[in-house]
Amino acid sequence: MVLALGAVIAGFVNGFAGFGTALVASGFWFLVLPADVVPPLIIISALAGQVVGLIRLSGQMKWGRSAHLVSGGLVGVPLGAALLGYLNPQAVKAAIGIFLVIYAALQFRGLPDLIRNDHKDGRADRFVGFFGGILGGFAGLSGPVPLVWLQLNKLSPIAQRERYQPFNLIILGFAAIMLVFFGKLDRTLMIYGAVAVPCSMVGAAIGVRAFIGVSAATFNNVVLGLLLLSGGIIVVQSAAF
């Protein structure tokens, strides 16, 4: 029941905001599942939720607008994985967590328009995607940097999602391929996945429906709240290790 409940709630958040499965699901699943099962289960459940969002919103988004972020991210992922042998992952996670907490807190108070970017040449988006890919390959944190970047550009909810949701989908897909490559899709994971994946998809479908028609202010506040909570959790986890 805890597995299914966590999957539905995490799926809802993923469907509404386009990210957040790991943040929500880990709070449930680490209580009842073997610790080594949770990370790969989050990946396949998040991927399923992303696919639901892709299908349900396909008529409202121009997915090609994510191309610059994605192209930069795919280059960055291998570099991030290579850096694992040279940098301390917990220190990097702590730095990112502190940044997210400070950023979200300042945004809630109201930041001035600091960035003017028309996204036409794609250079800035590629750099942001590249940096997000590095963090994804290094510490599994591919999403925060593109999210912050798009929020600073004051884009609408749909304009944000049509850029970062395909980015997250492709990075998660790449991570899922790595699970297969390293033999992590074992019988135990598949049993838990048989419960978690369908529940995540149901939650995501409900979340996407709630997202459609939501005001820009509400959407941005939800995303900022998730970033603030995510940053806090990352800092606490890093300090614990």
How would you describe this structure to a colleague?
The chain has 241 residues and is an all-alpha fold. It has one domain (2-240). The chain has helices spanning 2-17, 21-32, 38-56, 67-82, 89-109, 123-139, 144-152, 157-181, 187-211, 216-240. The longest helix is centred in the last third of the chain and has 25 residues, at 157-181. It is globular. The protein starts with a helix and ends with a helix. 45% of the residues are buried.
- Helices, by number, come to 10
Helix content: over 70%
Largest sheet: none
Structural class label? mainly alpha
Order of helical and strand elements: HHHHHHHHHH
Residue ranges: pLDDT <50 for 5 or more in a row? none
For the record, the count of structural domains works out to 1
Q: What is the CA-CA span between the terminal residues?
A: 29 Å
Q: Tell me the strand percentage band.
A: under 5%
Gross morphology: globular
Please give the radius of gyration in angstroms: 17 Å
Instruction: Write down how many β-strands occur, each being a DSSP E stretch of 2 or more residues.
Output: 0
Mean pLDDT figure: 85
